[in-house]
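Chapter review: from sequence to fold.
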Amino acid sequence: MNEFRGNEGYLRLGVNIDHVATIRNARGGRHPDPVRAAHMAVEAGADGITAHLREDRRHISDDDIARLSVEIDRPLNLEMAATEEMLEIALRHRPHAACIVPEKREERTTEGGLDAARSHNQLKPIVARLADAGIRVSLFIEPDARQMDAAVSLGAPVVEIHTGRYCELALAGDGPGREAELGRIRDAAAYANSLGLEAHAGHGLTFETVGGVAAIPGIHELNIGHFLIGEAIFGGLDSAIRRMRAAMDAARRSRLASEG
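The token string follows.
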């Protein structure tokens, strides 16, 4: 039993299964099945499942979303671009949450946060329709106060802070840059909380980088995918998720000890 689960300071883990579908699609057919991976993730301790249905269907498919919607007994977080097509799909399946992300056909993965401030007029009706359907809306944004203000203006209750730059700086061995970026994430989470927003975080997190973000008290959920699927090749998905869960809990435990 997780010692933090059910406590106010518990940090949720959402597991993104996109790249199980990437492997499947490389050859075609039904194996490996991302829905099976979602079941395994839940058994290993995932608090929710994340899946990004892209315009070009490069990994997750419409059928995957339909199956996840009915087969998984944990919240489904649908990552989606702000388009009419994706809006209609979200309204049809009504996932627990919809995280609006920027999307470019030529990118390998999401390269940065959504410019919610600049895209306000485009996003406003989409956020409203999702919210009216009872779907919890999240915006995937950079750790920037202007973007937090835009989320409030748009009526989105949740922001997911992009941690990609922090992870890239850590990988490059840039200690000062890494700490500066971690400070930006920490300040952004605190500012989001002060506005009444729930702060999540994700992108590029590994066993080595997750601790710094997990220790931030204002962050309530991490969404991690590619790294966990990659680690599953070497030691299994169950092991990778349990190790990530342990690293997250250790960071929270350390913070609580330092405070008390």
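Two observations follow directly from the output. Residues 237-259 form the longest helix (23 residues). The domain at 12-259 is CATH 3.20.20.70 (TIM Barrel).
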